[in-house]
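Sanity check

After download, print the first record. It should look like this:
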Amino acid sequence: MGRPRTNDEAVKERLVVCATEMLATRPRELLTVRAVAAAAEASTTAVYSLFGGKDGLIGAVRDRAVAGLFQDLSAAQTSADPLADLYALAVAYRHWGRGHSHLYTVLFGGVQSFDPSGEVGASDPIVPLLAAIDRALAASVLVGEATSIALSIWATLHGLVTLELAGALDAATAEAAFRSAIHATLRGWTTPAVFSSLRQAELAP
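Expected C-alpha cells:
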C-alpha cells in the first residue's frame, strides 16, 4: 500500500485562499512560499508540487478571479433592451466585487492588468461587456468606438466598487451613486435621439 497523498485538493484550496487574502491585504513581496504555506497549515513542498512555486500559485489566484468574474458577467440578463443589458452587466460586476472582495482587489490591484487595446481571450471578463456594447451599437442606441465605451464603463464601475469596498460610502450612498453614475455614463454614449428621449423621460413629472 502506498503512502497517503497529503497534497490533495483541500490543501490546494487552502493555499489559494490564503494566497488570495495575503495578496489583497499586504505588499506582494511579503507573499513568500514559507508564509503562505504556514498560513494554510501546509508544507512548502505542497506549493511546489501543486503549483510549481510562488508564481504558479499567484497565477492560480489570478485565474480564479478572472474565471469567477467572467462567469457572473456571462450569466447577466440579456434582453431586447441594450441599455438594460449593459446596466445588468454593471450590477453583476458590482455584485461579484462585493461578494469576492479579496479576489477583486487582487484582480485589479496588480496581479491582473486591464489592457483595453490588448488581445481579448474567449474567457476574458471584458467579452460580455463588448458583446453588449456591440448590440447597442448595431441597434443605434450607442454611438462611438466599442473599446472606448467599454473602458469608460469599466472606469466608472471600478471607481464605484473600489470606494464601496474601502468603506468610503455608506450603503444608501453607494446604492444611489451606483444608479446615477452608471446611468449617466451609459447615457453619455447614446445617440442624440436616444439621449433626448432618456432626458425627457427623466424630467417628466
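If your output differs, re-run the checksum step. Summary of this record's structure: Confidence is low (pLDDT under 50) at residues 1-5.
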